[in-house]
Known about the structure:
Elements: H1 3-6, H2 11-36, E1 48-49, E2 57-62, E3 67-72, E4 77-82, E5 96-98, E6 105-106, E7 110-113, E8 116-126, E9 134-135
Amino acid sequence: xxxxxxxxxxxxxxxxxxxxxxxxxxxxxxxxxxxxxxxxxxxxxxxxxxxxxxxxxxxxxxxxxxxxxxxxxxxxxxxxxxxxxxxxxxxxxxxxxxxxxxxxxxxxxxxxxxxxxxxxxxxxxxxxxxxxxxxxxx
Length: 138
């Protein structure tokens, strides 16, 4: 006896329909699992350096034309990226920090480079740099 001989008329549709529903549910579950995975491209949370206006930033180091690394309280390091290009950021020997009203330095603050205001795009915590940072003169 052949398997197809034992199938009653109309039953093929029900099997196909059940199969389609199961395949659809499996696809939905798999896509849901993919959505639940952490996104490795997501940017780290924005940080802030407390008391930046009174010794909260103890050192800094250039990280190119659009970013610097800052050493904060407790030897924590931060990467500050400016919006666009900040002239002389990669070669300047002195820098100013324009903080917010409570004295913290955050992603809404500005760097002052040779008299020019360079607004930040982001400020995130990072690993310490390999080289020695320049000390902030206070």
